[in-house]
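Field: COMPLEX_INPUT
Field: COMPONENT_COUNT = two
Field: RESIDUE_TOTAL = 470
Field: MODE = joint
Values follow.
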Amino acid sequence: MSERITITEASVPGLPIGVKLRFDKQRDQWVILAPERLFVLDDVALEIVKRCDGKASVADIVSELAEAYAAPRDVILKDVGALLQDLADKRILAA
Amino acid sequence: MTELSFPLAILAELTHRCPLQCPYCSNPLALEASSAELSTEAWQGVIEEAAELGALQIHFSGGEPTARRDLEALVSSAAAAGLYSNLITAGVLLSKERLAALAEAGLDHVQLSFQDSEAAGCDRIGGYKGGFEKKLDCARWVNEIGLPLTLNMVVHRQNLENLEEMLALAERFSARRVEIAHVQYYGWAYLNRAALMPTREQLEQATETVEAARERLKGIMVIDYVVPDYYARRPKSCMGGWGRQFLNISPAGKVLPCHAAESITNLTFDRVGEMSLRDIWENSSAFKAYRGTDWMPEPCRSCERKEIDWGGCRCQAFALTGDAGNVDPACAKSPEHEAMQALATAESAKAQRDFTYRTRKAGEEQAAKLSAPLV
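Field: COMPLEX_OUTPUT
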């Protein structure tokens, strides 16, 4: 039995076994490959997902993105949290 | 002019051999002999070509793909080509050691079928005694090895009463995903339709059960649900459009736009080895026949949904109307729609429980006397 993951700033997100981030050269896009599913990532989602390495916490990722894009941290946190919670609910993110 | 896309996924039907005999098997009635199967090298060539052509995922299927002793080598080739690999299996031929070897070779995911939530039904529907227990072992091993697991349950009149238990079984094995798929009526399932067709009440109950379970299991288990289109109002977007995203390769190397395409008897299919996969994808007459929207009749042609459902299912149009270029009767705009629903209602009320099981002999006999279209 599994339990639902709730993403917080302390969560350390990563891609579980069976979920892969890949560049699709024929279509010039980044995708997440998962069991019988495929998700095309836009630029924002890619910047977030590629930082999900099983080491950085959500707080780390948010701080890094806030600095890189000179954006308010709370705005970034809201976007990152929503995306990661959605991926977790789709069972393609571990944390 | 239709813009040509690249296939996203290929279904590699490695063999038609299978220890199970499910009466809704997606293989054609005329099963291919083991002597006609492609060699390891030929499959490896196909895998490389598919990756070059833009495929991202490969599904190893059958028959029972683990009946091929070279499965590890093929999984390894898929991993080397960068393809995400999925094993679609009945699980009864696997040992824990073999599963570990497949994981080692780079297998990404296992999709394990259950024919019911308990032994009696599972073994009767699959026509394989002791199968249920072996499947439980297989699911446990997949978990122990750490591969992601999907349970696949094909549902119909004779097992829908156990839908809650099927979902519970998937939950018990911490499956990330479960697929509840109502039977789609082609080939073997078309033949056994009167024994399988659910009543409308059963369908509605099943849909409610799935919706409630999705709510309850949010973030725990993803439930994919495939509805039976005999009761639908709009057709499914079959294969995401003919020749648009998907190709299927038969054990003997025939390249098909979908696994049921051979049921359309006026199409001819090219084979790997005789032409490149790219050439077949781009130029094979079978792929061009119903690709895009140019082939569509009215009311499809002027329908606002024509690039949403791509005209529904060609095999179904052929089976029920005798012409694959007709409107899919699952669509309420089809002149045959009401007759299709009446047929489903009538068959769902039958007491018939016996199946024509999937065997080579039964398939040969039945392929010779295909039932007439509905109209």
